[in-house]
Amino acid sequence: MAINFKYFFKESASSMRRNMALTVAAIMVTSLSLVLLGAVGMMVHAGNNIAGDMKERVDEIRVFLRDDISSEEIQSMQNFITRMSEVKSAKFISKEAAMVEYRQMFKDQQAMLDQIEGNPLPASFRVRMTDPKYNSVVAGRLETRPEVSVDSNGKKEIKNEKDVVNKVLRVTSMVQKIGFIVVIAFGIVAIALVSITIRMAIYSRRKEIGIMKLVGATNWFIRWPFMMEGVFEGFLGAVFAIIITVLLQSTLIQKFGTAAGISNLVTGGYTTVLAFVLVVFGIFIGALGSGLALRRFVEV
User: Fold this and answer.
1) Between 20 and 30 A from 95 (CA), which of 29, 54, 226, 277?
2) How far apart are CA 277 and CA 256, in angstroms?
3) Are residue 34 and residue 92 in the same domain, yes or no?
4) CB of 220 closer than 8 Å to CB of 195
5) Please, what's the b/e burial string for 241-266 (b: 16 or more CB within 10 A of its CB; e: otherwise)?
């Protein structure tokens, strides 16, 4: 018997209309599970990019100075740093230069610039090591210097990029693990809803299916509309998920990348690949849900 896809599409659409509430629920849950998958994928990708960018600067520490520091103290501090054999270079960043860097970083975010009154940014030294393993050693020595500023907790303000990289990687790993558990949970719910929708469709057409069997219709001829219904529900869920994921990428992720000083934190190429993955997973969820429903109706 030739496969009549036009007939199958028509039957699938008719079945979806008859069970509209369940169909919408299945599409929404599928979409939600895929949105979570896309969000987790983007966050992990963004976290890895941030960590990768920081790894290029992992041999660097930033030492912030008191606001009332004198030029003599700055020179003394620079001499103290450059005399260390572990130090490759030490660059002084004045308050004015720090403000120029800040304005350049947030040039596309006027709201951030408007919040700054005067120049609250401290002067600092950007110290690079001959090897990243010396970061903590040099930072420990610099903590003894009175020129270094102190935060509200009484701790010397020395930023160690290596510590930040490790924190970013830990957070990324945690998001990946928790996110995928949540995605799997919602995926199971989506598969169950698709399966229930197909079973309801089969039940509502049980008399028609019985007549088709009597006139010689094969099991697969009867199954095809239900399989296509499940796949179509999964595909629609993927389309909605892609739209939401792209909006997430163009708003929150993009702004976060700008704040982190990294352009194209999530590239268009990665978004395209992610969209393809979401479509594949959506179709898989729909097909699996349909398959589970039909497995009990081999001889309908």
Assistant:
1) 54
2) 24
3) no
4) no
5) bbebbbebbeeebbeebbebebeebb
Do 9 and 68 fall within a single domain? Answer: no
pLDDT at residue 266 is higher than 50 = yes
Residue 158 phi/psi, 5-degree rounding, is -130, 120
Tell me whether residue 300 is in a domain. no
- The owner of tokens 């792209």 is 246
DSSP H or E segment with residue 186 = helix 161-204
- Tell me the per-residue pLDDT of 66-95, one tens digit each, with 9 for 90 and over: 988 899 999 999 999 999 999 999 999 998
Residues 173 and 75 in one domain: no
Whether 110 and 68 have beta carbons less than 8 Å apart is answered as no
Q: Considering its fold, how many domains does the chain have in total?
A: 2
Instruction: Report the half-sphere exposure of 73 (CA within 13 A, side-chain side).
Output: 13
pLDDT for res 300: 45
Which residue reads 């004045």 in tokens?
94
Listed residues 100, 126, 160: the one ending a domain: 160
Residues whose CB is less than 8 angstroms from the CB of residue 210 and which lie 6 or more positions away in sequence, other chains included: 300
Q: Which DSSP helix (H) or strand (E) runs through 196?
A: helix 161-204
pLDDT (tens digit per residue) in 137-153 = 898 899 999 999 988 88
DSSP-assigned states of every residue in 135-180: HHHHHHHHTT-TTB-B-TTS-B-EEEHHHHHHHHHHHHHHHHHHHH
What number of other Cβ atoms are within 10 A of residue 162's Cβ?
20
Question: pLDDT tens, 27-53?
Answer: 788 888 888 888 888 777 777 777 666
